[in-house]
Amino acid sequence: MIRPQDAAAYSAQLADKQARLRELLAPFAAPAPEVFDSPLSHYRLRAEFRLWRDGEQRHYAMFEPGDKRAPILLDDFPIASPRINELMPRLKAAWQASETLGHKLFQVEFLTTLSGDALITLAYHRPLDDAWEQAAEPLAAILGASIVGRSRGQRRVVGRDYVSESLRVAGREFRYRQPEGAFSQPNGAVCQKMLGWAYDVLGERDDDLLELYCGNGNFTLPLATRVNKVLATEISKSSVNAALANLADNGIDNVTLVRLSAEELTQALNKVRPFRRLAEVDLDSYRFGTVFVDPPRAGMDPDTCELTRRFERILYISCNPETLAANIAQLHDTHRVSRCALFDQFPWTHHMEAGVLLERR
């Protein structure tokens, strides 16, 4: 139950974030941001805990930044999904009851989805043998979750090494595989709002889309339905494999995905050097109208930023508004901010994500 004082505190914090984003974008005459809020609790689909020994017991633990000696012991985690909270005590009881599962276990990670799927990663300071797998198999069945065991140079999978998510955008349901160990959006409710905003901002187009940093195809799937065809790039092999599976699972066939960094694609488009991974791709056949970017926290490097300047429209999702503002400053002489948005992926923290549409002047 959300207390009125909690709702009021959240509203005040969200207003502060909105003011901070407006201040960052004020030099570029950006319009007022559209604001997409978060659930106040049970919004986080991923969680990672260290285990802290107290006598014969191990407890879920977290620490204040920079302090690894004073654990905060947890029985539940209200910001995490209901599925994580349901799994936490059952998993703890299992490792306490089984020497095979509990011996030298030091970290637990949960990955869940809005659709209720779950994967648990157990990390150990010891090699994992067949006895571990034989103990993990019935536990996975009881919990209704996949389990991955990890130790140095070793990985054992009971069930699947990914979870399946389902997100609805503009009335259509998109299905996603989200691999263990790969990036996925932590706040599913806000992610769905981000996808809807990007879908709306892109609009119905009769040209092509270039996407940089496509990850597992989170944005690629809905955006591909708005354009003629898409050229998407991603450097992580696990993310590329997940994106290819997601495209196939959703019957989307107008996307060409290449494993290149944004910097390498810039070199290819500038014809600085050829790449074997582009041997079957006719870059000159594309009629790009929009480039979509969702870069890491460092933002776009200067060369990639210059590459985006070629496009009439730049649709930019940012997990760091400070580097977003720095990139806009580089582009502001040729492009103006016509729409912007605040996505509160991380309520109760100072972090925020933003989106902007830049259009050629």
Automatic annotation (TrEMBL):
**This protein's record includes keyword S-adenosyl-L-methionine:** yes
Q: What class of enzyme is it?
A: transferase
Task: Name the residues that bind S-adenosyl-L-methionine.
Answer: 185, 213, 218, 234, 294
GO MF, one annotated term: tRNA (uracil(54)-C5)-methyltransferase activity, S-adenosyl methionine-dependent
Q: Which UniProt keywords apply?
A: Methyltransferase, S-adenosyl-L-methionine, Transferase, tRNA processing
Matches recorded under Pfam families? tRNA_U5-meth_tr
Q: Which GO terms describe its cellular component?
A: cytosol
Q: Which residues form the active site?
A: 319, 353
- Stretches that traverse the bilayer: none
Reaction(s) catalysed by this chain, per the record, are: uridine(54) in tRNA + S-adenosyl-L-methionine = 5-methyluridine(54) in tRNA + S-adenosyl-L-homocysteine + H(+); uridine(341) in tmRNA + S-adenosyl-L-methionine = 5-methyluridine(341) in tmRNA + S-adenosyl-L-homocysteine + H(+)
E.C. number(s) listed in UniProt: 2.1.1.35
What biological process terms from GO does the record include?
A: tRNA methylation
What family does the entry list?
A: Belongs to the class I-like SAM-binding methyltransferase superfamily. RNA M5U methyltransferase family. TrmA subfamily.
Q: Which PANTHER family match?
A: TRNA/TMRNA (URACIL-C(5))-METHYLTRANSFERASE (PTHR47790), TRNA_TMRNA (URACIL-C(5))-METHYLTRANSFERASE (PTHR47790:SF2)
Q: Say what the protein does.
A: Dual-specificity methyltransferase that catalyzes the formation of 5-methyluridine at position 54 (m5U54) in all tRNAs, and that of position 341 (m5U341) in tmRNA (transfer-mRNA).
Protein name, as recorded: tRNA/tmRNA (uracil-C(5))-methyltransferase
Please report the organism this UniProt entry assigns to the protein: Pseudomonas flexibilis
